[in-house]
Design a protein that fits this description.
Layout: E1 4-5, E2 12-13, E3 16-19, H1 29-41, E4 46-48, H2 57-68, E5 76-81, H3 87-101, E6 106-111, H4 120-132, E7 136-142, H5 146-151, E8 157-159, H6 173-180, E9 183-187, H7 210-213, H8 218-221, H9 224-240, H10 244-253, E10 258-263, H11 268-278, H12 284-291
Parallel strand pairs: 3-4, 3-10, 4-5, 5-6, 6-7, 7-8, 8-9, 9-10
Antiparallel strand pairs: 1-2
Helix pairs in contact: 1-11, 2-3, 3-4, 10-11
């Protein structure tokens, strides 16, 4: 995979990144190691995690993998700090993440969400302290609105949800990031599995699926528009012979302004599926059709 520039950071990352929310929550350390190994073998250079992922379990797994495999070997490590984003909490969270990840510096330290209770200037000051100390290299944000981005400078990246159902970033955010030199690391390209066609409008959720583990996904996607998009995607898959997941992922990877698309995986085979989809670009007419949904 050909790397893409990550905003104005000077870093380059693969067009597919590995989101590690499943580590320590849905898969154990051994399977997580297998997923990480496969990701590196396939040319994925971005690993994304967060302090909030299962109370730091994801970071601990990644740290153990890095130690066992002899270091990051060119991998870009990104993690996040959850609210509250006070000066003390931001600095303490970075220190805790460094220990769990077993690295000397975090390549990309992201604010997991906007904190309305803490002045953003206080948060930015904490990030500057961490950068000056060499503990983080770049700062980014996640799940911010256009107003948040306009009110703040200094963010190198934005991590928003983006898929055929959740398309809010098309309303000004992509253009703003492009003009400001902010890299976009989008997540949930398959809408937490919704766009694979495994769910039905009858409301029955298969046990062990993402929507069973995290019920909060249901009101986001179990909507009239959501089901309509799934049926349109199912019809296009039948017509083209491409799996629904391939179509959904390929559409996001090719979107203007998206630097890297984060995928989650429960086993190495899902990494292979994503790489295969990325390596087989969609026909222009399919992309145009999907963009109209």
């Amino acid at each position: 995979m050909e790397s893409r520039p990550l905003g104005r950071t000077g870093l380059s990352v693969s067009p597919i990144g590995l989101g590690c929310v499943t580590f320590g929550r849905e898969i154990d350390e051994a399977m997580s190691f297998a997923v990480l190994d496969r990701a590196r073998e396939c040319g994925i250079t971005l690993i994304d995690t967060a302090a909030a992922y299962h109370q730091g379990a994801s970071e601990r797994v990644i740290g153990a993998w890095l130690a066992d495999r002899g270091g990051r070997d060119g991998m870009i490590i990104a993690t996040k700090v959850a609210v509250p984003l006070t000066r003390e909490r931001v600095i303490a969270s970075a220190e805790e993440s460094l220990r769990r990840l077993r690295v000397e510096a975090i390549d990309l330290f992201q604010l997991h969400s906007w904190d309305p209770a803490t002045p953003v200037e206080e948060t930015l000051e904490a990030l500057a302290v961490l950068q000056q100390a060499g503990k983080i290299r770049h700062a980014g944000c996640s799940n911010w609105t256009l107003d948040h981005l306009r009110a703040t400078s200094g963010m190198a990246t934005l991590q928003p949800p983006y898929n055929l159902v959740q398309r809010e970033i098309e309303h000004g955010i992509i253009d703003h990031c492009f003009k400001a030199g902010i890299g976009i690391l989008s997540y949930s390209p398959l809408a937490a599995g919704f766009l694979t066609g495994k769910y039905r409008p009858d409301g029955v959720v298969p046990a062990g699926t993402r929507f069973d583990v995290i019920p909060g996904h249901q009101p986001i996607y179990f909507t009239e528009r959501g089901w309509r998009v799934v049926e349109q995607l199912r019809a296009l898959a039948a017509r083209t012979g491409r799996p629904m997941a391939d179509l959904a992922l390929g559409w996001v990877i090719g979107r203007r302004g998206v630097t890297s698309v984060l995928i989650g995986a429960r086993h190495p085979g899902q990494v292979d599926q994503a790489i295969a989809a990325a390596g087989d670009p969609l026909a222009d007419e399919w992309v145009e059709e999907m963009s109209r949904w």
